[in-house]
Amino acid sequence: MVSPMILGVADGVSQIEQYGIDASLLPRELLRHCASLGMRQLIPDKKLAQKDSYQGPIPLLRQAFKATGNLGSTTVVLAVLDNSTMIHGKRHPMIAAITVGDCEMLVLRRVETEGSNLFEIIFHMEMQRIEGHAQSPLQLARVDGRIDPNFTDAITVEVIERGSAVHCVSAYEGDVVIMGSDGVFDNLFLDEIIHLANSILQPGMGSPLPQEALAHLCRAIVLASHSKSQRQANGRLPECPIGIGGKVDDTSVVVAEVIEWTEEDKGRSGPQRRRKKQQGLWACGDFECCRGASEEEVDVNLPEPHSPLNTTPQPPNSNVRR
Fold first, then answer.
1. Percentage with pLDDT > 90 across the chain
2. Cα(143)–Cα(37) distance, rounded to whole angstroms?
3. Which of 129, 251, 265, 288 is most buried, judging by how many CB atoms fall within 10 Å of its CB?
4. Is residue 27, in this structure, part of any structural domain at all?
5. Which domain holds residue 237?
6. b/e for 248-285, b at 16 or more Cβ within 10 A?
């Protein structure tokens, strides 16, 4: 999901299709409502009634689900850029993350050590699975009497309110957010994702990073995930977090960078913009917004590892781009 103030991945549960339900409809509708709420609640300088203002990631996800109408079941992870936090009288941008199910999210930050300036993981939101079973993620669902005659939306609302995992992490200019479905994190170890990030997002590219580099990393992660189900030259299957040979699965990835939101970009934050138009920074004063790239089922030629140049993370007052 591409939106200036919120990032998201939702992975529809395919088993629901046994009942003639399109597994893609609910997750797509859910993310559309999340994006709409993010635009309305999180864009700075908008005057809203208290009841309509941003109250946190749980109320936002709950409101988005209540606005949906499709049947289905989905996992979801959201990263909300919250510019309302004040520390010592100064605005301190935060990323508020919420997940239900087995999507995961990383926040990477460049750390200068021994003359290098490589990305390291400073936050990892892990998946939620019932008793650890790979095929039993916690889910947001809406079903009819064919599946559960006693189902009501109140059941899913309770999952959001009591079952979701919520974390907050400081956002600094230059931070990179990577989120994806279980097709990524069941197949790739974290150090493999970090290696791809450091190989592609080179410090010498400057800030903000080129849009093409973010898209390149998306494609590289997808390709690397899919390669884990293919035999190597020695005939063996690769090792994966889920086990030898990983699993064949649809794969969704979002890569975002935290960048400065300038006054120049203020007029470009309208929710009506299509994905292909979302190349510029959507800015509004000294706040944060989302920009970046998302990909599914793609190929890419991976670059060779590089010797990174030295730069340092920038302080808050930035925005995320994906």
1. 52
2. 24
3. 288
4. yes
5. 6-321
6. ebebbbbbbbbbbbeeebbebbeeebeeeebeebbbbe
